[in-house]
Amino acid sequence: MSDYTINTKCVQAGYTPGNGEPRQIPIYQSTTFKYNTSEDMGKLFDLEASGYFYTRLQNPTNDLVAAKIAALEGGTAAMLTSSGQAANFFALFNICECGSHIVSSSSIYGGTFNLIAVTMKKMGIDVTFISPDASEEELNAAFQENTRAVFGETIANPALTVLDIEKFAKAAHAHGVPLIVDNTFPTPVNCRPFEWGADIVTHSTTKYMDGHGVAVGGCIVDSGHFDWMAHADKFPGLTTPDESYHGITYAEKFGNAGAFITKATSQLMRDFGSIQSPQNAFYLNLGLESLHVRMPRHVENGQAVAEFLANHPKVAKVNYPGLPGDKYYDRAQKYLPQGGCGVVSFEVEGGREAALKFMKELKLAAIETHVADARTCCLNPATSTHRQLTDQQLIDAGIPAGLVRMSCGLEDKADLIADLAQALEKI
Ligand SMILES: *Cc1c(COP(=O)(O)O)cnc(C)c1O
């Protein structure tokens, strides 16, 4: 599969049926797996043989789909998780513990911000948030002796900032830690962070990868590039024996290509049990089969909608990295030459009242907290996800009261623009 383009990998990577076997990946709807002897099973528990024993840790359907995502990102190993939240938590907690510190871009998904700033803080893991536009000096100054990871989003949800992956990777590596990039919005079709120096990639597969709004899920992919043993003192969980797994040292036994995902599976999945259901993995794979066909259409619609809005008198501002003049246009040209995603945000003139009226008048675009599926949807953060904030707090957070986030689906762009035009007319 490695010789094929990403388009072909979307369709066929991860699973090659043998003679007479099912063409579509089978759903292994089984919690448990049968063995002839206890010795056979013992080898699995010792990680001496690979195989399945209990779906809380691993399931064959999930592994086929994870293998496809690993192929798409150009990684060496991957695991599915129950949600994007679980993916980001596992990716960080696999190398952080009480007393560790994370450097994170401040421009990230709200759920991930809470995870890092509130919940992981309660576990004794500290964070320094820095602007995605931080200079090299500011970036380097954020590191501490106990820093264990750098985190950012390729295209941030919902701010639509674009991460300078090379710059963040360089700073991370200068301090002997990996860069973890949440690549949910562009998907590997539009950006492969490993090619720019990232070490670990995470996904909320709930978004474009599924693409139809049917299954919550997540994924972690390892590039296999990070040399854990070279920084052994920082990552004892990977470089010293795991007493809960018969004294295995993951980085020795599985090497840089396999250590991270093997530890996350055999330790974190075992203990936290956030596996994706095999049924959801099956749905996810259906989405992946058309990801390379859908992403260009999401981008085409996002670009057309952004350009229409940018020229509309009732629209004060448009954020879309593909729009010439956008703050992130140049960076997007570098990292996202085929475009980023279908999510556009914009501020209507007239604030909260105008935004509410505008959204009420939309006919095709539904009001949802979701993004990134086939059907266009929109949201006014000031009256929904951020409704506890005052107008001034909203401005300070970069989410003015009149801001609308729109996720352009797969409909015809002419129909989407006509819908926007008639709704804007009424405010
Ligand atoms: C939605 C989202 C998440 C969280 O994913 P869930 O599947 O909802 O848990 C994480 N990161 C980004 C960028 C997202 O858009």
Largest sheet composition: 7 strands, mixed
How far the N terminus sits from the C terminus, by CA atoms, comes to: 53 Å
Structural class: alpha/beta
Q: What Rg is obtained from the alpha carbons, in whole angstroms?
A: 22 Å
Q: What would the average pLDDT be, to the nearest integer?
A: 96
**Widest beta sheet: strand line-up:** 1-7-6-5-4-2-3
Q: How much of the sequence is in beta strands?
A: 5-15%
What's the total number of strands?
12
By DSSP (H or I, 4+ residues per run), the number of helices equals 16
Q: How would you sum up the global shape?
A: globular
What ligands are attached or bound here?
pyridoxal-5'-phosphate
Topology as a string of helices (H) and strands (E): HHHEHEHEHEHEHEEHHHHEHEHEEHEH
Uncertain regions spanning at least 5 consecutive residues: none
Helix content: 25-40%
Can you describe what's shown?
The protein is of the alpha/beta class. It has 16 helices and 12 strands. The strands form 2 sheets. Strands 1-7-6-5-4-2-3 form a 7-stranded mixed sheet, with helices on both faces. A 5-stranded mixed sheet has the order 8-9-12-11-10. The chain is globular and about 75 Å long. The structure holds pyridoxal-5'-phosphate. Pyridoxal-5'-phosphate binds next to helix 4 and helix 5.
SSE blueprint and pairings:
Elements: H1 6-12, H2 38-45, H3 60-73, E1 77-81, H4 84-93, E2 101-105, H5 110-122, E3 126-130, H6 136-141, E4 147-153, H7 165-174, E5 179-182, H8 187-190, E6 200-204, E7 218-222, H9 236-239, H10 250-272, H11 278-289, H12 291-310, E8 315-319, H13 329-335, E9 343-348, H14 351-361, E10 366-367, E11 377-379, H15 391-396, E12 403-407, H16 413-425
Parallel strand pairs: 2-3, 2-4, 4-5, 5-6, 10-11
Antiparallel strand pairs: 1-7, 6-7, 8-9, 9-12, 11-12
Helix pairs in contact: 1-3, 3-11, 14-16
